[in-house]
Each structure stands twice: as structure tokens, then as C-alpha cells.
Design goal:
The structure is a homodimer of 207-residue chains. Chain A is of the alpha/beta class and 207 residues long. Chain A is 47% helix and 20% strand. Chain A is built from nine helices and eight strands. Chains A, B: It comes from Agrilactobacillus composti DSM 18527 = JCM 14202.
Amino acid sequence: MQLQVAIDRLTLDDAVTAAKKLDGHADIIEMGTSLVKDYGFAGMQAMRAAVVQSQLLVDLKTIDEGAYEFQQGFKAGADILTVMGASSWATIETVAKTTAAAGGTMMIDLLEVPQVKLKIITDVKRAIYALHHSKDRHDKLDPTATVAEFHHNFPQVQHIAIAGGVDLAGAKALAAQGLTDIVIVGGTIMNASDPVAATEEFMEAIR
Amino acid sequence: MQLQVAIDRLTLDDAVTAAKKLDGHADIIEMGTSLVKDYGFAGMQAMRAAVVQSQLLVDLKTIDEGAYEFQQGFKAGADILTVMGASSWATIETVAKTTAAAGGTMMIDLLEVPQVKLKIITDVKRAIYALHHSKDRHDKLDPTATVAEFHHNFPQVQHIAIAGGVDLAGAKALAAQGLTDIVIVGGTIMNASDPVAATEEFMEAIR
């Protein structure tokens, strides 16, 4: 299982500094949507320059105009880009093509996607499907139960990620369960007094 | 009925030039999502400086972290911001509060929102509900039939907008129908040889 650390809601300078510190410690460093909407393409390039050893995921959250947004994201140097599962199937198909052409990876964010829609969109080969609990919701997510239920309902999905309030114990349980490719952690690491030490703690817990 | 002209997929310089030309001609000028993700907050401020007489809509397409994104959008000077109807209800409630606190206006983008979800989200007072056909889809939208059906199903919605391939005849028919507050036009105007003349033509058709 890999660890993805999400960097969000910082100035670009602070985000770049944080990314440089975490580079090589986390498997994947995420440039969060807030940074995309605050700093745009130039911000993506700055994050790419900061992340040399880890993979860079840019959380574009594309929901329309898939080809354009994914071309821009890969042009900026991202390894992985996100599309919303709530998009039209046409958008998901389009970004799958753009991703293949760019030799990149796509993550489908399943935030608020109903079961009936999941049945339509869970056949994209090589895509990572991210189970995602909205930050605006106040209820909590049980990581292993959520992954187990998704895997039971959609056994054809090969790559699962999970985001939304996963703590150290949750990450450890996910690793032991063996169904998840990527655990995504944001505030728990970034708000720690020492984010690099917190990253190492998570890395140790999931290995 | 008002006309909203969407500016998308240009360099910021060209977008600002276009916005200055259209300012005062269209009721609302839209900074499209591609410009947000390419140029970020500084891009929003540049568009705000260019649009003095018309209203400025920034097509944020927020789907999570509603308070942060809407605070940033209003801080940049937008009059109207968009949230995806596909968001969690918690996100929509959050941006409604942020919008009220900022004295701004919110538009709920109904792209790919199923009927069952529409029933939950159609009670936000003062919100504009935008019927929206994905640009990645190849089928066409019948504007007046789409609006009539939506109005029949959700008569409590007071403010309707529609986007997605509406041409001059479609805009005229929508104005005559009298159910739509805002018609949103992108490429048909922006790709015309003279976008200002095309805007005037639409404005005349809907008055």
C-alpha cells in the first residue's frame, strides 16, 4: 500500500516548501484542489519542480471538459490526475483516452457517487478508484468497512484508494486488510508539529 | 431574461481583452473553469478588474471544501460563484451560508445530477439552478423542453439558468417561454468573427 499526502490551503511558497520536505518520504504528494484553484497551471509547475522523488498527484477534480483539463495537468508534469466519478460517462471516457496518450495515471474520485452510477463507471482498466468522504460532512468514515463493502460490490476494480479522515490506526488496518492501493492523508500529517516525522510514522504503519 | 457569456480556454491576456470588450454588452460575463484552473486567484482578480459594468460569474465548480473556495471566489470580487449539484448536501448548505455572508449569489450547476438527488437540493432560496449539458457529450439539448420539464418537476425553483449549445433560435424560444432567468452561451458567441456583435444579437433576441 502507498501513502499519499495531501497539501492544501497554503500559500504556494509554503506548499512548495512542504512538498520539498516530504519529497521521497511519501510515495505520492498531492497538490490539493485549493492550490489548483488558487495558483493554476504555474502553481502545478512549481509543485512539479519541488517533487523529484515522489509521484505528484494534482487533484484537478475534473467534472467536464476532460480532454483540456487533463492535457493541461499532464503538460504541467503531473503523474496522476483526478476526475470526478460524478462526471458524465463521456467525460470519464475522454480523460481515460487522454491519460493513456500521456502515459499517465487517472484517479476517479467517488465523492457522492450513488450505487447506480458506480455500476456504470467501474470498468476503467488501470484507473484508481478513490473512496472519498466529503470534508464538508461531519459524520465519520470507517476505512476498512468502506473498502470491504466497495470491494464486495465491485470486485472488478483493481486499484482502490481511500481519503477522508484516515488516522494511523485506520491506515494500519487498511494495510493489514490488503485491499487498498493508496491511503490518502491530509490534515493529520500536514497539521502535525513535524509533518515529515508524521509521514514516516504512517509509512512505517503501512509497511 | 439575462445573457451570460462564458469565456474559456484562452490565455489570461486574451480572456481579459475579451472581457473588456464584452463588458456592458452581456449582463453577466463568465470566467470559465479552464481559466480558473489555469490562472487561479490572480486570474480571477484580473477578470474582476476587466469587468466593470457587467456582473462577473466565476465558474468555480466547487464540489468539496465549499467554505474555502467560495470565500476565495468572493474575495477575488466575483458576483456569482458556482457549486456542483453533485456535491454533498453539506457542501451546498455550506456555500449557501458563505454566499449569504458575502452578499453574493450562488449558482448550482445541475450537470449529471440524477432526479433523486434533485429532490434534495432544490430548496435553496435565492440560488440559481443551472441546467447544464456536459461539453464532453455529443447528444444535443432541447432548451425549452428541458426547462419546461424541470419547471414541471421542481416548481419551487425560482431561478433557472441553462447552458450547453443554446443557439440564437434557442435563446429566443427560452425568452418567449418566460421560465428562464439566465441563458449561458459560450462558443457560439466567443468563436464568432465579432463576439461583441454576436452578444448584441443574442441580447436583442432575448429582449
